[in-house]
Please model this.
Amino acid sequence: MNSDTDTIQSIDPIQWDEKFISTSHAEPSFYYFAYGSCMCPVDLQRTLSEPTHSYVIGPATLQGYRLGFYRHSRRRNCGALDIVKDANSSVEGVLYRLPWRLSDRLDEREEVRIDPDKQVHIGGYRPEMIEVHSLGKDYQNVRTYMVINKLAQELAPNDWYFNVVLRGAVTCGLTQEYCWQLFNHMYHLQRQQVSYHNS
Model:
């Protein structure tokens, strides 16, 4: 990779390029890197309306980015995870191979919306193509999602979001060190929020 733009790129807002669709399996599919609540296959199943454990490839790492709670989730009324560029950091998550027929449902969960006149993303998250490393192999043309309008400061998750993110991380085999970092990050954000409201 020669630059940051080689690592991650915006996806055309209307049409997915055919190169992003894998046809090497029984049905068209795509790779998806989850770093938040979708790391938990049970929670992802709630969105996709079918079991998702068999779609898990394994734990994966995205280099050059870090996690941050830079979105306010109106549905959950708390902070939600995002990834932001940081050359000295990495993000661990879960790599899935999902059937292409589930693509629209995943976009809907991430509140992907397009301005039909300007042809730009105006929803909560926008899809991005990245490269990740999983189980000794590099995967290119992997879909993930990034917050469009980021908060200036991180917003703490609620207890439900805290638990489902951590459950996904532990269940799908993210490193113990990263799981502890994730726990401490969310815990300290919650404590800061409590201190602010009590001051």
Remarks:
- The helical segments are 4-7, 41-48, 103-109, 159-171, 176-198.
- Confidence is low (pLDDT under 50) at residues 1-21.
- The beta strands are 8-10, 29-34, 56-73, 78-99, 114-115, 120-121, 125-134, 137-147.
